[in-house]
Design a protein that fits this description.
With 424 residues, this protein is an alpha+beta fold. The chain has three domains: 137 residues, Four Helix Bundle (Hemerythrin (Met), subunit A) (Up-down Bundle), CATH 1.20.120; 154 residues, no CATH class; 71 residues, Nuclear Transport Factor 2, Chain: A (Roll), CATH 3.10.450. It has ten helices and 13 strands. It has an eight-stranded mixed β-barrel with strand order 5-6-7-9-10-11-12-13. Helix 1 runs antiparallel to helix 2. The protein is globular and about 65 Å long. About 3% of the residues have low confidence.
């Protein structure tokens, strides 16, 4: 009997331990699923914000598009962003009818852009009423954009849906519509022109180049893992790893420099940073560069430069210089765009500025026109007339007209703030 009781006790204990283990495992799995679900919701909310942001910018551009090619491209982008926005909404943990009006807005953007694309493809023109509809849609897109930034990312049903109430209320009176898409994303896909045909240098020579470029001693650098790919580089670090510099194996060009030191109290403004950056480029033998845009962030002024070829601004030849606003030190240098694209070019415009300007929307007032080379989605380049314009409500708009065909190649909206000047 005693042996039986011991055996029973062992069995019961084993069962209890097994059940406890299963319970712990179950809780662990539940927590794992909960985290995955939370991540999915967070990602979907972020995707929705990005899509609405892109819809607003595209609608803003569409008001100023004046040729069928550009109008059709923008309509296609609106359809794509609308579809992605609807997909993001479908994942979120929404209660019934919680954002019906917002969903209606997203759907109408897609339907409206589809109708425009069909109309343009059939050779018809966009009416004044339809241009006004674009402006109305953009107004609501801005409102939705602002409201989504304030949505509580706590995805418990009550908290999350309560935070959407303001957004939904703002779209209560959304009108019914009557119906009858900066220049550096392509860089990583290309082969560098500057290093083409250049001999491979030794690692020691690359280390000397790093020292000359930074003003440090060669002995201060340590060789770290190299980079392969379209533009192989020797990589070095200094100052306990806070400084990293990359030198192309072919030709020995500096492709990137970063200094991650802590930035102190701001002592310089944008103008002073611009002067420092210009002097740095010239001291390193990098000439014929023109400043385009800049942004201020985390105590650094990051300035974009494009090369100038016979008076033509060549945006593909991109160099970025980051100046620390505490002491003016260069803490960022990125020359991948320049190394990928810079070459001798013969550039000739078939159309005069006056003829090209005829393709600019009558909704814009042209302030300045100049020749500019811009990259194309197919990894090529196209010579354009860049017209700096003023639009509705003081919008600053850049319109790019093909200098040979007269077609609109691109439209950008300039956005200025205390943080800098960017083009979207």
């Amino acid at each position: 009997m005693k042996k039986k009781r011991i055996a029973s006790f062992v069995i019961v204990t084993a069962i209890i331990i097994s059940l406890g283990g299963a319970t712990v495992y179950g809780y662990s799995q539940a927590e794992h699923y909960r985290r995955n679900l939370q991540y999915g919701y967070t990602r979907s909310l972020s995707d929705l914000r990005d899509c609405v942001d892109n819809i607003q910018i595209t609608l803003n551009k569409a008001v100023y598009a004046n040729t069928a090619t550009e109008q059709n491209g923008l309509a296609a982008k609106l359809m794509r962003e609308s579809g992605m926005a609807k997909a993001a909404v479908s994942v979120l943990p929404l209660t019934e009818n919680s954002i019906d009006n917002v969903s209606k807005f997203i759907t109408q953007v897609g339907d409206f852009s589809m109708s425009l694309s069909k109309k343009i493809s059939e050779g018809e023109t966009i009416s004044d009423e339809e241009f006004q509809s674009m402006k109305d849609l953009e107004t609501y897109a801005k409102k939705l954009q602002q409201n989504l930034q304030e949505v509580n990312p706590d995805f418990s049903s009550e908290n999350f849906n309560d935070s959407l109430k303001t957004t939904e209320e703002d779209f209560t009176n959304f009108p019914s519509l009557i119906y009858d898409g900066p220049f550096s994303d392509h860089i990583g896909q290309m082969k560098p022109k500057m290093t083409d045909g250049k001999q491979t240098i030794a690692q020691g020579n690359a280390q000397n180049i790093a020292a000359d470029f930074t003003g440090l001693n060669q002995s201060e650098f340590s060789h770290v893992q190299d980079t392969a790919g379209n533009m192989p580089t020797y990589n070095f670090t200094a100052k306990d790893g806070s400084i990293r510099i990359c030198i192309t194996k072919a030709g020995g060009y500096v492709s990137e420099l970063s200094n991650t030191r802590t930035i102190g109290t701001k002592a310089l403004d944008y103008e002073a940073a611009s002067t420092k950056a210009r002097a740095f480029l010239e001291s390193r033998g990098i000439q014929n560069m023109k400043e385009t845009y800049y942004v201020l962030n985390d105590g650094i002024c990051l300035i974009n430069y494009a090369s100038v070829n016979d008076g033509v601004l060549c945006y593909p030849d991109l160099i970025k210089v980051g100046i620390a606003l505490d002491d003016g030190q260069v803490v960022r240098f990125q020359a991948a765009g320049y190394l990928m694209n810079h070459t001798d070019r013969t550039l000739h415009a078939s159309l005069s500025s006056a003829d090209a300007q005829k393709s600019v929307s009558p909704n814009l007032t042209v302030k300045l026109g100049r020749l500019a080379l811009i990259p194309t989605p197919g990894l090529g380049e196209v010579l354009c007339w860049e017209f700096q314009c003023t639009g509705n409500d003081g919008d600053r708009v850049l319109v790019y007209i093909n200098a040979e065909t007269g077609y609109e190649e691109d439209i950008l909206i300039l956005q200025s703030s205390d943080s800098g000047v960017l083009a979207r």
